[in-house]
Design a protein that fits this description.
The chain is α/β, with parallel strands linked by helices. It has twelve helices and 17 strands. Helix 5 links the parallel strand 10 and strand 11. Helix 4 packs across helix 5 and helix 4 packs across helix 10. It binds zinc ion (ZN) (2 copies).
């Protein structure tokens, strides 16, 4: 066993605080990783505060992990000591169901083992995430970080990046397509970059006109202020795809009307009931599709990392001292980060 340190919540109402705990010794197919960087995702806040009702404590968040391999099990072939590697939202799955067989472990019919707050499939202990000094993960769920990428800025690709890349890829976004991105946070700004790199004409939908210049800096060709009914109306029937990263309830109807016939509205941020209600005519009359998408499989996570290296894409980050994690949560809730905090794990030792 390894002794590890990390930051965890002991209950839904207590701030994250340092904690010492054990990591298992590597099993034959495991890779042990010294964590260098870990991105901070909104899911971490939801889970630490039990806002989804599925938290288990102590809860150590973190699923955008980049680090160096320090030890490998006897059967490991994909990684070796010293490699720069990443771990995203999942650390295991059943590995034999239809979804797993199709490299879509995130849709494992038995449920994937998430990187934190999920029972390990073998020993039943709750998984502990990346706000820590080390992690031990089966090699299948460990990806290679391309040398060209800045390792700190690569960390958020493991959740924010794959979440936006996977649906654009799945629905075949290609050169000339008109893609609208709803919201410009951690997910949205990555969505703009990916859609642009795929050759699409990209429009950001935002509530504040003040974000226009910043959106263009991220690669957006156009900006629509979603609170301006005239601008929304002028975009009617225009888009092939909408990538909706808005994580709170919002009216989908005005957005659906901006899709052309056969257009696809893809939800990646919302996991609550749609409210106000969807007017079915907005789908039926134009054969439009309302879809959802969850992160991406492990093979596709490697693919997006390689895509980022090839197209020089990285996440805009603000480095964080882990001692300031609770303040960072408050700032994220206020929308005050461009666009992802990444914990420098060297600060854990200080
Ligand atoms: Zn995440
Ligand atoms: Zn499965």
């Amino acid at each position: 066993m390894y002794t590890a340190i990390g930051y965890a919540a002991q209950s839904a109402t207590t701030p994250l605080a340092p904690m010492t705990f054990n990591r298992r010794s590597p099993r034959p197919d495991d890779v042990a990783i010294e964590i260098l960087y870990c991105g901070v995702c909104h899911s971490d806040i939801h889970q630490a505060r039990n806002e989804w009702g599925i938290a288990v404590y102590p809860l150590m968040p973190g699923h955008e992990i980049v680090g160096k391999v320090t030890e490998v099990g006897a059967n490991v072939t994909r990684h070796k000591v010293g490699d720069l590697v990443g771990v995203g939202c999942m650390v295991d799955s059943c590995r034999h169901c239809e979804a797993c067989a199709a490299d879509l472990e995130q849709y494992c019919l038995e449920g994937p083992t998430l990187t934190y707050a999920t029972p390990d499939r073998i020993d039943g202990t709750n998984t502990m995430g990346g706000y820590s000094s080390s992690i031990v993960v089966s090699e299948h769920f460990v990806v290679r970080i391309p040398e060209k990428l800045n390792p700190a800025a690569a960390a958020p690709i493991l959740c924010a990046g794959i979440t936006t890349y996977s649906p654009l890829k799945h629905y075949g976004v290609k050169a000339g397509d008109k893609v609208g991105v709803l919201g410009m946070g951690g997910l949205g700004h990555m969505g703009i970059k990916f859609a642009k790199a795929m050759g699409a004409e990209v429009t950001l939908f935002t509530r504040s006109a003040s974000k226009a210049e910043e959106a263009r800096r991220q690669g957006a060709d156009h900006v629509i202020v979603s609170t301006d009914a005239e601008q929304m109306k002028a975009a009617a029937g225009h888009f092939d795809f909408l990538l909706d990263t808005i994580p709170v309830q919002h009216d989908l109807n005005p957005y659906l009307e901006t899709l052309r016939f056969d257009g696809v509205h893809i939800l990646v941020g919302l996991i609550e009931p749609v409210d106000p209600a969807l007017h079915a005519a907005n789908l039926v009359m134009k054969r439009r599709v309302l879809a959802g998408s969850l992160i991406g499989g492990i093979a596709e996570t490697q693919e997006v990392l390689d895509f980022c290296a090839e197209h020089d894409i990285s996440c805009d980050i603000e480095m964080l001292d882990i001692k300031h994690i609770n303040e960072a949560y408050s700032r994220m809730i206020a929308g005050d980060v461009k666009y992802r905090f990444v914990i420098d794990m060297a600060t854990l030792k200080a």
